[in-house]
Amino acid sequence: xxxxxxxxxxxxxxxxxxxxxxxxxxxxxxxxxxxxxxxxxxxxxxxxxxxxxxxxxxxxxxxxxxxxxxxxxxxxxxxxxxxxxxxxxxxxxxxxxxxxxxxxxxxxxxxxxxxxxxxxxxxxxxxxxxxxxxxxxxxxxxxxxxxxxxxxxxxxxxxxxxxxxxxxxxxxxxxxxxxxxxxxxxxxxxxxxxxxxxxxxxxxxxxxxxxxxxxxxxxxxxxxxxxxxxxxxxxxxxxxxxxxxxxxxx
Amino acid sequence: xxxxxxxxxxxxxxxxxxxxxxxxxxxxxxxxxxxxxxxxxxxxxxxxxxxxxxxxxxxxxxxxxxxxxxxxxxxxxxxxxxxxxxxxxxxxxxxxxxxxxxxxxxxxxxxxxxxxxxxxxxxxxxxxxxxxxxxxxxxxxxxxxxxxxxxxxxxxxxxxxxxxxxxxxxxxxxxxxxxxxxxxxxxxxxxxxxxxxxxxxxxxxxxxxxxxxxxxxxxxxxxxxxxxxxxxxxxxxxxxxxxxxxxxxx
Amino acid sequence: xxxxxxxxxxxxxxxxxxxxxxxxxxxxxxxxxxxxxxxxxxxxxxxxxxxxxxxxxxxxxxxxxxxxxxxxxxxxxxxxxxxxxxxxxxxxxxxxxxxxxxxxxxxxxxxxxxxxxxxxxxxxxxxxxxxxxxxxxxxxxxxxxxxxxxxxxxxxxxxxxxxxxxxxxxxxxxxxxxxxxxxxxxxxxxxxxxxxxxxxxxxxxxxxxxxxxxxxxxxxxxxxxxxxxxxxxxxxxxxxxxxxxxxxxx
Lengths: 250, 250, 250
What we know:
3 copies of one chain form a homotrimer. Chain A has one domain: 2-enoyl-CoA Hydratase, Chain A, domain 1. Chain A is 55% helix and 15% strand. Chain A is built from 9 helices and 9 strands. Chain A has helices at 27-42, 64-67, 72-90, 107-113, 140-161, 167-173, 182-197, 201-234, 237-249; strands spanning 4-9, 12-17, 48-53, 57-59, 96-100, 103-105, 117-120, 127-128, 178-179. A 6-stranded mixed beta sheet of chain A has the order 1-2-3-5-7-9, with helices on both faces. A 3-stranded parallel beta sheet of chain A has the order 4-6-8, with helices on one face. In chain A, a hairpin with a 2-residue loop joins strand 1 and strand 2 (12-17). The longest helix of chain A is centred in the last third of the chain and has 34 residues, at 201-234. The radius of gyration of chain A is 17 Å and the shape is globular.
């Protein structure tokens, strides 16, 4: 794989996002993650997965310059793949631990909140669904997963203001579960993965589905419509201008 | 309008409840609010709305002496208008900020929790869905909006006990978002309205609907039945006696 | 009744689990509780119910040695009765207060979280849905009731890890409502029962149903399938071995 490195050690697989400085998500990254997670789901030797990023970013979200070149139909295809991926992770039959090594923004935050547990580094790194601040909407599942972790009140505030949360505030809200120094991040994530994967696999999957399945069924039923509205707004005059400004001025 | 004053300044509309000492809600107030909010929804110059009250009360709720004169069919008509109004506000396409200048009780609390953000004065002012304490039930939407803000556990306790919360406790529960002195209430509400309305309007509406729309669809489907049960209990012997005692002894 | 003692005093009924050292739940206990609660629901003199246990345990859950003798169809019959019972309590038309006098584990925790309010003794007593730790799954309603009290994030952690919570942690999570010394447990539970049952009965039932009914309808619709999956896992090789080890080694 080009942008996702997967290694396995003693039953724990680690998938590392590795694409440039900010691990920007494009269609190849999503295809590779989708494929990787599907294979790990079926791999009898894998008991848990850690999802992390290389460098100072978990991921900064979608590769906007690249998507500004996409015609509408291609963008819809990409978004469908992307929301399918976070749903796959949300319903992954084994524990998935997110080791947030740095900024976890927009589409990156969506991947993080589809996992079972989040560890995050302290300091400057932020986590946020900040789409509204460049005039973009969200997807049904992304909003429902945010509600799942922090409750409706904090979720609405997060998505309607696009506020950026440091690890302390994210922990207080319930958006992450643990703060760990960069040096110990991998070892701690591994410890959590071992703790969760020490449970009986069939019971774990069954219970995880009791918690999540009907919620996921519900948002899957709304995803296509939410993508369509997302795309309408994305290509609207105001938002398009914001996106171009964002690309030019960072 | 007779009991609702609406003023506009730099894109922020303010609707002020202004009916006697306690801003008691009657059919005229609800008609005026409904009409006012519908016009503000369509008004291209209005980017956000502040809802507040005159004097020491936001509103003490329904004008019970007046409703004790209502025959059942008229009361059902009023309640349908009232629950339609809080649903309109809950799904208002622009930010609605509640500036709770004083007691926010029963029907008044329902209007407050249909907004996006609540500022409340400290001191003696209370916020409560206290209907149970005069033997009255509630409406489906009012219960769901309470759950939305404070979660099911606190919501159930609030509605099953009718406890009255001061600003400190309301903030701790998540029932309000900010405590502000009466002198600064309007200026602070205005600041919040500007903050929320600074977001792209189309993205804001789209995201607010992703958070709220299916919840509202769900409670709208139960509202008629809940009104019917509410009215059965309202006109029952016990509750009717409580209501009359309440009117006589305050 | 053999294992459930019911006494009534001034409108408050108390049901006491009384079966051996750990108040283990078997089919007779569940039949007696079901019958007891149905009669108390209809008893015009009963305004509230307290559910508690004798000795150092509220209940340690299912009587596993006994159920290891059950053929599959009998076990399904028992589980259907059991989930019907906690649904009856969850929708009981009068207040039900759980006085948790000691360990409240697995099936015992499910009964506790179907009540309206929980008081628990401090010290060594634990409360937990620990099924995963002997390789067992759960039932749809048990998971939804856990979400109801502590929110989805804490609920998922509780059911996927099977962690045992002391009273302090349970209170912090919202899993219980009050910590009371063993000496004062009954008096305090009685005080709470009087407080809740002081409300108008028709309004209380109506409001409780507004909060809980559609949630219960939803999980009742999934209960049969969840029982079927529970039983598949229960009789699987791994879990069966765990259960036998548990019986032999305690």
